[in-house]
Amino acid sequence: MDGKESRKFPPEAVELYSKFIHGEISRRAFSNGLKRFAVAGLTVNAMIDGLMPNYAMGQQIAKNDERIHSEYITIPSPNGYGSIKGYFVRPFSQYTRDEKPTKLPGVIVVHENRGLNPHTEDVARRFALQNFIAFAPDALTSVGGYPGDDYKGGLLFSKLDANKRMQDFLAAAQWLKARPDCTGNICATGFCYGGGVSNSLAMMMGVDLKAAAPFYGTPTKPEDVPKIKAAILIHHGALDKALSEGYPAQEAELKKNNITHEGHVWPNSVHGFFNDATPERYNKATATQAWDRTIEWFNQYARA
After folding, report:
1. Which residues partner with 91 through β-bridges?
2. What would the DSSP string read from start to end of 92-109?
3. Is 1 within the bounds of a domain?
4. Is residue 287 part of a domain?
5. Is the pLDDT of residue 55 over 80?
6. How far apart are CA 252 and CA 250, in angstroms?
7. DSSP bridge pairs for 245
8. Residues 35 and 127 reside in one and the same domain
9. Is 59 helix (H, G, I), strand (E, B) or coil?
10. Is residue 298 part of a domain?
11. Total number of domains in the chain
12. Does 73 share its domain with 194?
């Protein structure tokens, strides 16, 4: 093992974690539900430790990496909660001492339903090293921002108005697109809730969004699919039954409306398979393939 993979728990245990972290069951129900998998020396506490995120372990790019420049920026969101704060990252090579910045395509990176945690920030840094400028907004801005704990973040998230949240992300995308160091070509990606936001941005922005790569996100409503103009790259885990079994219908709607798209239902992968901060969900092989394909997709449609 390389420190980012470990013995995999049963998919049912991972599903319990997903229900817990999405607020569908209580902490007590999560813990009690894990008891039936506590066999062969595997304790409930060990399973909880393996399922909960370890952000230090999952970090790939340090915040002070000399190849990037990062900062937190708060932007106006008049139709949302008034403003939204986000983590903005660009490659250091974009600027030189005596020249104007090279214009680069941008990527909006949208977190899960717990706020802007360290994993999402790390993904934004990964995009910067692929020669994009990236902005990762925090939906929890209006309630004080990500609290440093995913469970508490989820509780705060559930109190927000869904429409205002979405308007905050739309404002963030429009801000990124209009930046003088952006080519005006932007893409969107996100995870779980953020995957759904990526789909929604594609529907709301039309030609203003070049591509989207939702990871295990809620599909666009059939009646809204005709509004999509972006190229859509879909990632689901095969063991994430709720979404993977619905993919044929999702794909059929995209085909019917002649939307440029590509879909992957990755084998042996659960909900959250891309998140290397949660080792019992992370699938290194499929996460690597999904990342590489996402970079290829964004390069194809945002650098043309």
Report:
1. 68
2. GGG-BTTBPPPPEEEEEE
3. no
4. yes
5. yes
6. 5
7. none
8. no
9. coil
10. yes
11. 2
12. yes
* Crossing angle of the two packed helices 11-21 and 150-157, in degrees rounded to 10: 50
Q: Do 19 and 72 sit in the same domain of this protein?
A: no
How many CB atoms sit inside 10 A of residue 74's CB? 12
Residue type, 216: Y
Q: What is the pLDDT of residues 13-54, one digit of tens each?
A: 888 888 887 778 888 898 898 888 887 667 888 888 878 888
State the Cα–Cα distance between residues 174 and 277, nearest whole angstrom: 30
Q: Are residues 120 and 153 in contact, defined by beta-carbon separation less than 8 angstroms?
A: no
Q: State the Cα torsion 33-114-209-60 to the nearest 10°.
A: -90
Which pTM does this prediction carry?
Answer: 0.91
Mention every residue, 6+ apart, whose C-beta is less than 8 A from residue 291: 126, 274
Q: Any idea what the Cα angle at residue 193 is, between residues 191 and 194, rounded to 5°?
A: 50
47 and 74 share a domain?
no
Beta-ladder partners of 83: 76
Q: DSSP letter string over 122-173?
A: HHHHHHHTTT-EEEEE-GGGGGTS--S-HHHHHHHHTTS-HHHHHHHHHHHH
- 196 and 170 co-located in one domain: yes
Look up the domain containing 37 and give its range: 11-51
Q: 254, 225 in Cβ contact below 8 A?
A: yes
